[in-house]
Amino acid sequence: MAVSYAGDVPPQEAYAALESDPAAVLVDVRTTAEWSYVGLPDLTGLGKRVLPVEWQRFPDGSVNERFLDQLRDAGVTEGAPIYFLCRSGVRSAAAAAAATRAGLGPAYNVADGFEGPLDGQGHRSVSGWKVAGLPWRQG
Q1: Any idea where the Rhodanese domain is (predicted)?
Q2: What's the confidence (pLDDT) of residue 83?
Q3: Which positions ≥6 away from 103 have C-beta within 8 Å?
Q4: How far apart (Å, rounded) are the C-alpha atoms in residues 76 and 131?
Q5: Regarding the domain with residue range 7-137, which homologous superfamily does it belong to in the CATH classification?
Q6: What pLDDT shows up at residue 2?
Q7: Cα distances (Å, whole numbers) of residue 132 to 5, 8, 45, 112, 116
Q8: Per-domain residue ranges for the chain?
Q9: For residue 1, what pLDDT is reported?
Q10: Cα 80 to Cα 32: distance, rounded to the nearest angstrom
């Protein structure tokens, strides 16, 4: 099955691309609750800001029907590289595919997301943006 977006990249590669390409943007597709209670990537050292746009709404989990409009309203333009991030890389992959279908991007999924998948004991923070030591702040 062909990938419907530009590909999965590790958090360090996404950060390097955001650092080197002024047009590149990071879109955090987690929920408002996650941004508030878990934290957000911090791109202030790069002179950029994270664009928070929910892929699924809190608390019911329904897909945000205005997602693409909200991306554009946040300043995402055609041709700009977009790096999508969620908790573990699942929602962000869906968001990257939707953006690609809408003609935005190239769109990338940040593999393992902000906190990574669950480990054998049911814990997160075993991989992802935070574990990679990339800048973040508490919401």
Answers
A1: 20-126
A2: 98
A3: 78
A4: 27
A5: Rhodanese-like domain (3.40.250.10)
A6: 54
A7: 23, 16, 16, 10, 10
A8: 7-137
A9: 43
A10: 25
Quick one: pLDDT at residue 100? 96
Q: Which structure tokens are listed for 65?
A: 């029907």
Query: What pLDDT score does 111 carry?
Result: 94
**pLDDT given at position 117:** 83
How many CB atoms are closer than 10 A to CB 108?
A: 26
Residue 125, amino acid: S
Strands 136-137 and 40-41: antiparallel
Residue position matching structure tokens 């814990």: 123
What is the reported pLDDT for 72? Answer: 96
* Mean pLDDT per 10-residue segment, the chain (139 residues): 83 98 98 94 97 95 96 95 95 97 96 88 82 91
Distances (CA, A) of 139 to 31, 33, 36, 37, 39: 12, 9, 4, 6, 4
Question: What are the start-end ranges of the H helices in 1-139?
Answer: 11-20, 32-37, 67-73, 90-101
Identity of the residue numbered 64:
N
